[in-house]
Design a protein that fits this description.
By secondary structure, the protein is α+β, with helices and mostly antiparallel strands. It contains 14 helices and five strands.
Length: 351
């Protein structure tokens, strides 16, 4: 053993190379360099540290140091040998990193798509700090551009989360250009902090948080729920930077029976299509009116209308549909139909 740590086999032939080079003044041959690289790869695969390995090479060089007159050639040989050895070491480490990244990516894909046996998936999850027997929740952040692992934005968010909570039981990754955080279901503070950091790092991107779901399949359920919230926010034009699935459960309920919702939209709002300019301006009027709590002045401001013009539009809606937006008895039906129209992208899409 060299330096009390490094086995001598990683220095095999090193002293003979130094002796021959110091005697002849030649440079290392191609085979000699290849042998150093191979030993470097073997040392890396065995888990030895590069610092200790280089120290062992320098110690061996000092032991086999030639006469003073040939020091320059010997130093050149040491430089070549150590450089080749380090190159092999780094190549092995890079391969190991790539293999680890491939294993991690395969696990994440299986985790989020539920494509693997749940028992086997739970076993693999422990390697990445997740205990899938417990409930987990997923937060998904979407920014103006797509992100991949290793990009500056994901690294910035990951550092911020790990600095505060550590990496135990938390998985930070990317999927389909979005940032993801998987955390135990009872640790909502982790997801809230991730949402805050992701919103800032993505220059105002939106974050959706799924509900905690139990068991090995809970992660994919929470992930799909968060994706659904992002799609819902886009359809409805929701402006909140952080949206929670638990706060929006009414919308999936409304769209569970698509045909029934389509019938409600057409029966309630269909007459608006006969208005000058079509249904869209009047639909936008109802949307603004309901979003502001039926406050005419604020609705008019949002639509860049006068209050008188807004009032005329509401009256026109009443005439066409027979439902008065200002009347409590009609308001719920109209508002539900407006939400359904936004969810079903009517009138742009035929129902």
């Amino acid at each position: 053993m060299t330096n009390g740590e490094i086995p001598e086999r990683y220095l095999d032939g090193y002293d003979r190379i130094l002796a021959d080079v110091s005697a002849t003044g030649r440079r290392l041959t191609r085979d000699e360099l290849a042998s150093r690289r191979a030993l470097g790869e073997q040392a890396a695969e065995a888990g030895h540290g590069l610092r200790a390995l280089i120290s062992a090479h320098l110690t061996a060089a000092r032991t086999a140091w030639p006469s003073p007159g040939s020091a320059d050639g010997a130093l050149t040989a040491v430089q070549q040998a150590v450089d080749a050895f380090a190159e092999g070491f780094e190549r092995a480490q890079l391969l190991a990193v790539r293999q680890e990244e491939a294993v991690r990516r395969e696990f994440i894909d299986d985790l989020l798509y539920g494509r693997s046996d749940l028992g086997r998936l739970a076993e693999r999850a422990e390697r990445f700090g997740l205990r899938l027997s417990h409930a987990h929740a997923v937060a998904v952040a979407q920014g103006p551009t797509a992100y991949e692992e290793g990009d500056p934005v994901p690294r910035q968010v990951e550092r911020a989360v790990i600095a505060r909570f550590g990496d135990r039981n938390v998985l930070l990754t990317t999927k389909d250009g979005r940032l993801l955080c998987v955390a135990p279901g009872h640790q909502d503070e982790v997801l809230a902090h991730f949402a805050k950091q992701a919103h800032a790092a993505t220059d105002g991107g939106r974050v959706a948080i799924g509900r905690p779901q139990p068991g090995p399949g809970g992660v994919v359920q929470s992930y799909e729920e968060a994706l659904g919230v992002l799609q819902l926010a886009e359809r409805l034009g929701l402006e909140d930077p952080v949206l929670r699935a638990v706060d929006l459960l009414v919308y999936p309920v409304l769209t569970r029976d698509r045909q029934a919702m389509a019938d409600l939209v057409l029966d309630t709002l269909g007459p608006l299509t006969s208005a000058r300019g079509g249904a869209q301006p009047l639909l936008d009027t109802l949307t603004a009116y309901f979003d502001t709590g039926c406050v005419a002045a604020e609705s008019a401001r949002r639509l860049s209308l006068s209050v008188r013009a807004l009032t005329y539009r509401l009256e026109r809606i009443h005439q066409l549909t027979g439902a008065n937006p200002a009347a409590p008895a009609h308001r719920y039906m109209l508002q539900t139909a407006v939400i359904g129209a936004r969810l079903l992208n009517w009138p742009t899409t035929d129902l």
